[in-house]
Amino acid sequence: MDRNARILASVDDLARRVRSAATESGRRYLLGVAGPPGAGKSTFAVELCSALNRPGEESAGVAPMDGFHRTTRDLADAGELDIKGHPRSFDIEGFTAKLHELRTAEPGVRVGWPIYDRGIHDPVPDGVVFDRQMIVVVEGNYLLLDEPGWRDGRRFLDECWYLTADIELIEQRLYERHLAGGKSSAVARSKIANNDLPNAALVARTVRSADLVLTPQRDRYLVRGVR
């Protein structure tokens, strides 16, 4: 898509684009969805997969990057618990290895993928299992980060989109997320100011590496090319 082009697309429109690209590739297709924390990546990924999956056929599934958080114990032992959510708080080697496994596994071979449980605040192994799904939507903050380890993972993605959101909406969503996770109002606001928003600023600098940028417009998305 030309970098100057702008289109308004529904989730169904975007699903058709992905399905066409996946069919053309002739193998399992990995689509990345990047963006700042609180942008709505998880919700968008689920909606996109719902549009991709025809009745009685699960051809697409979501692989969240959050499953590769280092454990609370690991971060605490390293004195890094306060940076949870920062790129250093992820197991990037494990993430890259799983992307490679997804890319190379034959259809029908089971590939387990961890998920992050916000109830226990830790990853759970094999929370998602892929086998015959030929489209995988990988969603996470740092998919486009041009740093050692992260750029290795990017090469396994056929395409990577960037989902934007207004900073006020991001702050509100993060505040509600922290409260739901058991944090007090004061701790939640401190976490947002000192950790989440700096991470969001870091992610925002990666937008230039995206293939497409999606901006929510009510029930549609304004889509523009970058490259």
Task: List descriptors.
227 residues; alpha/beta; Rossmann fold; seven-stranded mixed β-sheet; two-stranded antiparallel sheet; 37% helix; globular
Give structural notes.
The chain is an alpha/beta fold and 227 residues long. It has a single domain (9-209), classed as Rossmann fold, CATH 3.40.50.300. It is built from 7 helices and 9 strands. It has helices at 11-25, 41-52, 72-77, 92-104, 150-154, 167-180, 185-204, and strands at 6-9, 29-34, 60-64, 111-117, 122-130, 135-139, 159-163, 212-217, 220-225. The strands form 2 sheets. It has a 7-stranded mixed sheet, covered by helices on one side. It has a two-stranded antiparallel ribbon with strand order 4-5. A hairpin with a 4-residue loop joins strand 4 (111-117) and strand 5. Helix 1 (11-25) crosses helix 2 and helix 6 (167-180) crosses helix 7 (185-204). The longest helix is centred in the last third of the chain and has 20 residues, at 185-204. The termini are close together.
The CATH architecture term is: 3-Layer(aba) Sandwich
- Cross-sheet strand order for the largest sheet: 1-9-8-7-2-6-3
What's the rounded overall pLDDT mean? Answer: 93
Q: What's the Cα radius of gyration? A: 17 Å
Give the helices and strands as they follow along the chain.
EHEHEHHEEEHEHHEE
> How large is the share of residues in beta strands?
15-25%
CATH superfamily: P-loop containing nucleotide triphosphate hydrolases
Continuous helix count: 7
**Alpha-carbon distance between the termini?**
8 Å
Q: Describe the biggest sheet?
A: 7 strands, mixed
| CATH domain class | Alpha Beta
